[in-house]
Amino acid sequence: MSAAPLWTSAAMARAMRAATSGALPEAVTGLSIDSRSIAPGEAYFAIKGDVHDGHNFVAPALRAGAAVAVVEAAQRHKFPDDAPLLVVDEVLAGLRDLAVAARARLTAQVIAVTGSVGKTSTKEALRCVLSAQGETHASAASFNNHWGVPLSLARCPANARFAIFEIGMNHAGEVRPLVAMVRPQIAIVTTVEPVHLEFFSGVEAIADAKAEIFEGVEPGGAVVLNRDNSQFARLQARARELGISRIVSFGTGEKSDARLLDVALQAACSAVHANILGHDVTYRLGMPGRHMAMNSLAVLAASSLAGADLALAALALSQLQPPEGRGVRRVLELAHGEATLIDESYNANPASMAAALNVLGQAVIGPQGRRIAVLGDMLELGPTGPALHRGLNEAVKANRIDLVYCCGPLMRNLWDALSAGKRGGYADSSAGLEAQLVAALRAGDAIMIKGSLGSKMKTIVNALEKRFPGTTALDEAAVQGG
User: Fold this and answer.
1) Which Gene Ontology terms describe the biological processes this protein takes part in (predicted)?
2) Which residues pair with 338 in a beta bridge?
3) Which candidate, 94, 203, 340, 458, has a CA 20 to 30 Å from the CA of 155?
4) 255 is in an annotated binding site
């Protein structure tokens, strides 16, 4: 069965004010900016990136089955006269225009998620619980920037009941144009933490940048804020300044509208008792960590605000699985037994690093096993970077971490602060750390790997998976419902 149409060519041309060329399809089934993964029947947008110009890949995209390519007028001459093209002044601007048209045709409840930590996992949790209750669209991966948000919005089917968009930033002013396209009825700020400090004067400035999301909230809409966060009052005040009266808080205190009453943390899941907007719920959460339990409160509150059934939403959280690089567990087959790999390699900042160390502290290990943290530099922290890396030693000690492997000049600060017994190994780069870690592993170990993208910690994950191929790990208690 062929995929359902997403856009007619005529509607795309109108929305983008595009000239047409060649034999255009009646409709396209999807949108892509990557010629390597494009599916037959999709439209290919030849976006100019930081490294590559998409116009260089139009021909491969069409050969792979792209139904039409969106190109800029200045490069139209590079393609055959009969090539199926939509020609615009600038491709990214055309994509933004299509996103605006997509939002205009939507009748869905639209939810936008931002925050220093937990954006993607919260977005995926919303996808998990809402997709069980109606047609749901959500941003792919971490498509949360100047091209990811319009692409995600333009991909949204007109018949969606729920639509969820992740919005990221590392500079002031980046959220504002993105939320202006998304225009959510519900906006979530998961938390505000000291990240991207290289570009901000302090945490308050980060909060102000996150608060730009309120500017796009539709009249009568709501915001969901973390009452336990130090910036709650600042965010609440800004939302009120902008005329938003429905401010829903989540946290552990009595004043929280979505309140965590109790949580039992297990190695790969949690049991949660909470009160959500006046309703007591008990549920199993398919991902571990207190931070995930906290964010699940925001998920259930937003789901209720969007008109979803709270009981069904809570039930669906047992099926939640971590996104790639954000806590995925795999069994490593060693010579004399198994070890557990916790892949947290996608990115890192002080708050997410502390949360990951907490999860490692809950991990089950064998009789001779150890809890091993493999940590790369946290980037974009500015002058505070050395102290914030050094400060991770408190989380190492609090979470019963047995060995720490460090790589990168910033993580050297943690290495120097560790007690001698906890020092596993140090290298200037992830490539240099790989051999040390491989040589040290033994059956029963639990290994958590984390660092900023620029630290390239995924290379260590890939090396371990290649050397010790195994399977995706499952928590026994989660499987048995215990």
Assistant:
1) cell division; cell wall organization; peptidoglycan biosynthetic process; regulation of cell shape
2) 333
3) 458
4) no
Calpha distance 430→375 (Å, rounded): 9
Per-residue model confidence (pLDDT) at position 324: 87
Q: Which two tokens stand for residue 467?
A: 């050397």
118 annotated as a binding-site residue? yes
Asked whether residue 117 is marked as a ligand-binding residue, the answer is: yes
Residues 6+ apart with CB under 8 A from 114: 166, 167, 168, 169, 175, 187, 188, 189, 190, 210, 213
Task: For residue 44, give its domain range.
Answer: 7-89
Question: Angle between the 91-105 and 9-16 helix axes, to the nearest 10 degrees?
Answer: 110
pLDDT tens digit sequence for 432-469: 999 999 999 999 999 999 999 999 999 999 999 999 98
Note whether residue 20 is domain-resident. yes
222 and 287 inside one domain = yes
Q: How many domains does the chain have?
A: 3
Whether 96 is covered by a domain: the verdict is no
121 labelled as ligand-binding?
yes
User: Tens digits of per-residue pLDDT, 20-38?
Assistant: 999 999 999 999 999 999 9
Residue finishing a domain among 319, 351, 374: 319
Q: Which of 465, 253, 445 has the alpha carbon at shortest distance from 340?
A: 445
116 is in an annotated binding site: yes
Is 451 found in the same domain as 429?
A: yes
**Are residues 312 and 393 located together in one domain of the fold?**
no
Query: What is the per-residue DSSP string for 181-236?
Result: HH--SEEEE----S-SGGGSSSHHHHHHHHGGGGGGPPTT-EEEEETTSTTHHHHH
Residues of the chain falling short of pLDDT 50 = 1, 474-482
pLDDT, tens digit, 9 for 90 and up, residues 298-350: 999 999 999 999 999 999 999 999 888 999 999 999 988 999 999 999 999 99
Same domain for 139 and 226, yes or no, is: yes
